[in-house]
Design goal:
Number of helices: 15
Distance between the termini: 21 Å
Shape: globular
Oligomer: single chain
CATH architecture of the largest domain: 3-Layer(aba) Sandwich
Number of strands: 15
CATH topology of the largest domain: Rossmann fold
Helix content: 40-55%
Strand content: 15-25%
């Protein structure tokens, strides 16, 4: 069996890209040959792949790069048993390959990419897929409703924690305390388009947290065009000395930051606005923190509540309510017993439900089913 995986940015640093790479690894682990064609180049230094990497069309999205990607994908399309489209943006290419060579295709639905209005081509490509793989039940329900995809064509495959990262967390114990200073951590892309992740809300809440729980340090791992605004907000709120912008960290460097924190916090807000949806499709970083036995604070909307079990592995709050976020942080900073209990529960939940072995089994089933069930 041969699978062609069409990626938007295979070596990108975001959660959707990480899901794509793990999906490719799971396909290969099932004994299937997977070949990868990416639209754009990525930022990762590690360029290993579980199958042949066929290259990319360019460093940024241009009309020429889009045309090169389309031509290359269709030229290569014959002879595969399945095309996997890692994002709805490349789904029309998968549909074209299906029409030309009768190769079935499946499409990933990550979150806001499929929650709101789509152009006719992408919507038709979703509807024509043999299978749509959603990263959460919330995403699955919304895309079925909004895009008119038949519910029996949608399969939820939750992300898994990277086995290397999970192994690095194996011997982790209760969250540390650096003297009297508790460390809060967010791992997120600092994009103006992704302000819903709530870094600004956490920064705004810090004065109340400090007043209620004592000194804290807030570390933000990630980079993007919204960083200057967040830095200015920290100065405005008088907490610039309490906020550390750690910048972009490669995957193999994340373990040190998870170990260094006491509480992981990313109070994402999921809401429908006139210009489209915002929100977290799932949030693999919640599970990564839980793997290190860290309690998690998440926002109440989107797929985040499927990653964090309220009052068991962390706290789920209204991410738009700064006071609620401050109260949740204060509660966990002041209660080491609760932190240890939630952290231990989070680790057990990851080992029970979010391992690569579980992911591989589910991916094998959906890939082989889609390869047998192509539709026009």
């Amino acid at each position: 069996m041969r699978v062609l995986l069409l990626a938007t940015k295979y070596f990108g640093v975001g959660g959707a890209e990480a899901y794509t790479r793990m999906f490719a690894q799971a396909i290969a682990a099932d004994g299937v040959r997977v070949e990868i064609l990416s639209f754009l180049d990525g930022e990762m230094s590690d360029r290993t792949a579980p199958g042949p990497y066929l290259g990319h069309a360019g460093a940024r999205s241009t009309r020429g790069a889009r045309l090169r990607f389309l031509v290359d994908a269709v030229r290569r399309g014959r002879g595969y048993d399945l095309v996997v489209c890692s994002h709805v943006a490349v789904a029309p290419v998968g549909q074209l390959i299906h029409r030309v060579f009768r190769v079935p295709y499946l499409v990933f639905g990550h979150g806001i990419d499929v929650w709101g209005a789509l152009d006719a081509r992408r919507r038709a490509a979703l509807r024509g897929a043999a299978r749509v793989v959603a990263v959460s039940h919330f995403t699955g329900r919304v895309l079925a409703l909004e895009q008119g995809v038949a519910e029996d064509r949608v399969t939820v495959v939750y992300p898994a924690v990277d086995p290397v990262l999970l192994g690095a967390a194996a011997d982790e114990v209760d969250a540390p305390r650096d003297g009297a200073v508790a460390t809060l951590l967010t791992v997120a892309r600092l994009s103006a388009q992704e302000r819903y992740k709530g870094c600004d809300v956490v920064i705004g809440a810090l004065p109340d947290v400090i007043a209620g729980a004592g000194p804290v340090r807030y570390v933000i791992v990630g980079e993007g065009d919204d960083r200057p605004r967040l830095e200015a907000l920290a100065r405005q709120r008088g907490v610039a000395d309490r906020v550390v912008f750690a910048g972009r960290v490669q995957r193999d460097g994340l373990a040190a930051w998870y170990r260094a924190c006491d509480v992981f916090v990313m109070p994402s807000v999921a809401t429908r606005r006139p210009d489209g949806w915002t929100g977290e499709g799932f949030g693999i970083v919640y599970l990564e923190a839980a793997a290190f036995r860290r309690p998690v604070i998440a926002g109440a909307g989107g797929g985040a509540p499927e990653a964090v079990e309220h009052a068991v592995t962390g706290l789920v709050v209204d991410g738009a309510d700064g006071r609620a976020v401050a109260a949740a942080i204060t509660t966990l900073v002041r209660d080491p017993v609760a932190r240890a209990r939630m952290g231990a529960a989070g680790r057990l939940r990851v080992l029970d439900q979010f391992t690569f072995d579980r992911f591989r089994t589910e991916v094998a089933a959906v890939v082989r089913g889609a390869a047998r069930g192509g539709v026009s």
